[in-house]
Specification:
Elements (H helix, E strand, L loop, with lengths): L18 E12 L2 E12 L3 E5 L6 H8 L7 E6 L2 E2 L5 H6 L1 E5 L2 H4 L6 H7 L13 H13 L15 H13 L5 E5 L7 H17 L3 E6 L11 E6 L2 E7 H4 L2 H8 L3 E6 L2 E6 L2
Parallel strand pairs: 3-8, 3-9, 6-7, 7-8
Antiparallel strand pairs: 1-2, 1-4, 4-5, 9-10, 11-12
Length: 275
């Protein structure tokens, strides 16, 4: 376990045992068009999944279901041990950390970095009250763990895009989530910023908590430390399972409908489209 990211037992809830996410024959139609089609998927504690597919494959829509912002048209959805329809979805959202490039656009540029992180505790964009000292202390520890401790008092708008994304990770961890969803989090990052961000995510993965689901359509943006992969095409699963068994040339060629060669180097995957 990497001590630079791992949380202590006093900082997190007891980990959930068993099933984190369970989807059984789930379909979702939007304006009469099926976006998710008869999808079954289980995510267990200790697993970190990458969700891969072309633009429009249904990846973000699938995240919307597990975050409680979309309701399946058919099938059964269980998240963090509770069936949809048996609990308040607002409670669910407070237990799931969310990281996306567009969250940065919602945060006022004059907001202090430390306040951005603490706001994750309340699932709000701005901080509307003075937090207790223990929350400020926890936020400071998280900033140090993502390599942004020196920006505690800085204005969010003064940070680079890569630094902002690392602060958003700290914000997502502030609520001590059992599940963290990352939706195309490298969008807009330059190469150095992307690699620093991916290193941070890899350290979170190594710490073992929270369970993560990472959405991308770029294979080279999959961090080290992810254990499983699900490939999605037109709302259907084309392959799923252990990452080393799924991310191969055959499966990715089928998913993207072009000839692809996959190579693994230093625990990262890279894809080349064949001429």
């Amino acid at each position: 376990m990497n001590p630079s990211i791992a949380t202590t037992s006093s900082e997190v809830r007891e980990p959930l045992t068993g099933l984190i996410l369970g989807l059984s024959n789930v379909s979702l139609a939007i304006e009469g068009r099926k976006v998710i089609r008869d999808l079954s998927w289980e995510v267990k504690e200790g697993e970190n999944w990458v969700l891969v597919g072309q633009n429009g494959a249904g990846k973000t829509t699938l995240l919307g279901i597990l975050n409680g912002y979309r309701w399946p048209s058919a099938g059964r959805a269980t998240v963090l041990g509770k069936d949809f329809g048996s609990f308040d979805l607002r409670d669910l959202r407070r237990k799931i950390g969310f990281v996306s490039s567009y969250i940065s656009d919602w945060i006022p540029e004059e907001e202090k970095v430390i306040d951005v992180v603490v706001s994750g505790r309340y699932a709000s964009i701005k901080l509307w009250k003075n937090p207790p000292p223990e929350e400020l202390a926890f936020a400071n520890r998280l900033l140090r763990r993502v390599g942004c401790g020196r920006y505690e008092g800085a204005k969010f708008g003064k940070l680079s895009q890569g630094e902002r994304q690392r602060v958003i990770i700290a914000r997502a961890l502030m609520a001590r989530p059992r599940l963290m969803a990352l939706d195309e989090p490298c969008a807009g990052l330059d190469l150095p910023g992307r690699e620093k961000f991916l290193s941070t995510i890899a350290r979170v993965a190594e710490s073992g908590s929270p369970t993560m689901i990472y959405v991308t359509h770029r294979i080279e943006e999959i961090p080290a430390g992810f254990t499983h992969a699900l490939l999605l095409r037109e709302g259907r699963v084309t392959a799923k399972g252990r990452i080393e068994q799924v991310l191969n040339s055959r499966n990715l060629s089928r998913c993207f409908q072009v000839p692809i060669t996959v190579r693994k180097w230093r625990n990262r995957y890279y894809a080349l489209v064949d001429d």
